[in-house]
Amino acid sequence: MDNNHLIDVLRLINNLQKEATIPTNSSCTKPLLGNIDSFNTRPVTFYSCNNSLLTVNYYVDNVLNTSSVFRIEDVNNSCVTVRLLAQDEDTYTATNEFATININCICAIRCLNDINLTI
After folding, report:
1. How far apart are CA 33 and CA 13, in angstroms?
2. Which one of 69, 73, 75, 89 has the fewest CB atoms closer than 10 angstroms to its CB?
3. Where are the domains of the chain?
């Protein structure tokens, strides 16, 4: 994916989450988030150029966890700041853990179905 296009998609998702309105189906560039439940997050996963899923390790109560699902929090030039999401089967929980990822390390983005997170 072209870095300029990727930055545009990441900024669009970030702006949509900030304005979280209603109704539509999910995909990376749908103009609105949510449906009747007023979703506020479009979870994403990132892939490196060798098709590896990007994962980030974090600790909760001294227990090592790994996340590959993120909420975009900010996009700044060549970096994206993400909130790590904990996954339990088909549900996600916002953590208080963040990571900054160099956009040059991302070759693909996958958008998951919109969700409503308590942040």
Report:
1. 9
2. 89
3. 3-111
What does DSSP say about strands 91-102 and 79-88: parallel, antiparallel, or unpaired?
antiparallel
Q: State both tokens at 33.
A: 């988030």
Q: What is the pLDDT of residue 32?
A: 58
Please give the pLDDT value at position 43.
96
Q: Are 29 and 8 spatial neighbours (Cβ–Cβ below 8 Å)?
A: no
Greater confidence (110 vs 18) lies with: 110
Query: What's the CA gap between 118 and 26, in Å, rounded?
Result: 19
**Quick check: pTM over 0.90?**
no
Q: Give which of 38, 51, 40, 28 is closest to 83, Cα–Cα.
A: 40
Find, among 78, 69, 74, 5, the residue nearest to 42 by Cα. Answer: 69
Hey, is 42 helix, strand or coil?
Answer: coil
Q: Which two tokens stand for residue 3?
A: 């870095």
How far does CA 45 lie from the centroid of its chain?
A: 6
